[in-house]
Structure formats: structure tokens, C-alpha cells
């Protein structure tokens, strides 16, 4: 009698484990929108259909107090949402701060909002204690351990 109870318990445990694995794998399926305003449908090809918007950023002038602002809008170049275009060089103005993760540097606006995660930032020869203008381009495909801001590949940094 004992072997039968153990056998049933083992079968039940295996069935529960199989159901858990099946549900976990089902949750890994991706979805793709069926059209504008339509409900998502299951994608069976495994190919990614999601795209990121191209960000157009314009730095505003700075006053005598050294404060600056940034205007940004998410627009696709052709209105389709495609981001196959080459990165656009742009200027961001703000203050340099250390990120919360070790080795991460971010650019923040006057309110403390993170504008960008600065990749390749070299402070040599630049006074970064005040407002700076950073030139470069956003690279949303870049992998980083910094959890603040979108990756921004820096080409130049200048004070003010």
C-alpha cells in the first residue's frame, strides 16, 4: 500500500512540474500588434517586430545663472516608427552627475531628471562642475549595466 501512495505522490509532483514549465514557456511568447488600435496577436516567427522611436533633442540656451533646459520629442523620421536610420548627432545640456551604479555617469536637467547615460565620457580638460553641453548620439541598442537614462555615446563635452 505504501508504494502505491508514493507512486501517486511522485506522479502528482511530476504533473505539477510539467504544468509549471508549460505555463512559464507560454509566458515567453511575444506579441505583435495586429494593427492600429487592434488587440495584440501572438507572433509565431520569433522575430522581433518592436521598434524604438527616434528621439529629436534640442538644447535651449542658458542664462547667466548657468541653468539650461532640454526639449525632446519622440518622432519617427517617416512617421512609421522605423528606426533603421543612422544615429543623429545631437547636443544635450545639463549637469554631470555620478549614476547610482558604480562607474556610471549621467547628465541631468535642472530638476534632477536624468537625460542620458553618458557612454565614452572623458572629463579631461573640461570643467564639469557646472552646466555642460554634451554632443553625441543615443544608442538604444547598446548594452549597459547602468540603470539610469538611455545610452548616449559622447563625442565631445564643453563647459556651458
Describe this structure in words.
There is one protein chain. The chain is of the alpha+beta class and 160 residues long. The protein folds into two domains: 2-42; 55-159, Beta Barrel (OB fold (Dihydrolipoamide Acetyltransferase, E2P)), CATH 2.40.50. It is built from one helix and nine strands. It has one helix at 2-27, and strands at residues 31-33, 40-42, 55-59, 70-74, 90-98, 105-108, 114-119, 131-138, 151-159. The strands form three sheets. It has a five-stranded mixed beta barrel. A two-stranded antiparallel ribbon has the order 1-2. A hairpin with a 5-residue loop joins strand 6 (105-108) and strand 7 (114-119). The model is unreliable at 30-35 and 38-78 (pLDDT under 50). It comes from Nakamurella multipartita (strain ATCC 700099 / DSM 44233 / CIP 104796 / JCM 9543 / NBRC 105858 / Y-104) (Microsphaera multipartita). This is Putative membrane protein, glycine-rich. Residues 31-87 are annotated as: Disordered.
